Amino acid sequence: MSYSAHDLPDLIADQVEGSGTRVALAESLTCGTVAGMLGRGHGTSAWLRGGIVAYSTEIKQRVLGVSPGPVVTARCAEEMAAGAAKLFDAEITVSTTGVGGPGSQEGRPAGTVFVGWYRDGQVGSTEYLFAGDPERVLDQTVSVALQRLYEITSDTKRTATAGDSNLHG
């Protein structure tokens, strides 16, 4: 089920609040917008560890441990998410990288986006191709990143309630 980007911060908070789960972000394309949206949720100080805007390739590599090479890739999104988990000591992270437009980058057309995720040592990513101007691409990216974070956190409250001690490392 899909929710509005404006509803998701509170829904995510409902999922992680009281579970002990720590959440962090690594953003390139979205320039901190996902973190700003999460700040609208309730109880954020209890579960949001922080976020990094790693817009330049140098920062992605030096701070988040992204391997040299193209940054508009699934690999980069996954390494950004894993790097943020390490940097912020978080169990769950989401990352964004891509081409907002209007032109192409690294041979990828405008609207190419990768949303990466990390959860308890596992990583993954999804590729999107959004249509529209840069503002529309950014809005769509924020929405899918929040939706992905909601999906990843969807079982934290249930698992924590069940007493799964492995959830929190």
Description of the molecule:
- InterPro entries: CinA-like_C (IPR036653), CinA_C (IPR008136).
- This is CinA family protein.
- The protein is 41% helix and 20% strand.
- Helix 1 packs parallel to helix 6.
- Strand 4 and strand 5 form a beta hairpin.
- It starts with 7 loop residues before the first helix and ends in a 7-residue tail after the last helix.
- It is globular, with a radius of gyration of 15 Å.
- The chain has 7 helices and 5 strands; from the N terminus they run H-E-H-H-E-H-H-E-E-E-H-H.
- Strands 2-1-3-4-5 form a 5-stranded mixed β-sheet, sandwiched between helices.
- The chain is of the alpha/beta class.
- The protein has a single domain, classed as Maf protein, CATH 3.90.950.20.
Q: What is the domain total for the residues?
A: 1
The CA-CA distance between the termini, in Å, is 29 Å
What is the H-and-E element order?
A: HEHHEHHEEEHH
Strand-residue proportion? 15-25%
Shape: globular
**What low-confidence regions span 5 or more consecutive residues with pLDDT below 50?**
158-169
What share of the residues lie within helices?
A: 40-55%
Q: How many beta strands in the DSSP annotation?
A: 5
Keywords for this structure?
169 residues; alpha/beta; 5-stranded mixed beta sheet; 5 strands
Q: What's the short story on this structure?
A:
With 169 residues, this protein is an alpha/beta fold. Helix content is 41%, strand content 20%. InterPro entries: CinA-like_C, CinA_C.
Explain the layout of strands and helices.
Blueprint: H1 8-16, E1 23-27, H2 33-38, H3 44-47, E2 48-53, H4 57-64, H5 74-88, E3 92-98, E4 112-119, E5 122-129, H6 134-153, H7 156-162
Parallel strand pairs: 1-2, 1-3
Antiparallel strand pairs: 3-4, 4-5
Helix pairs in contact: 1-6
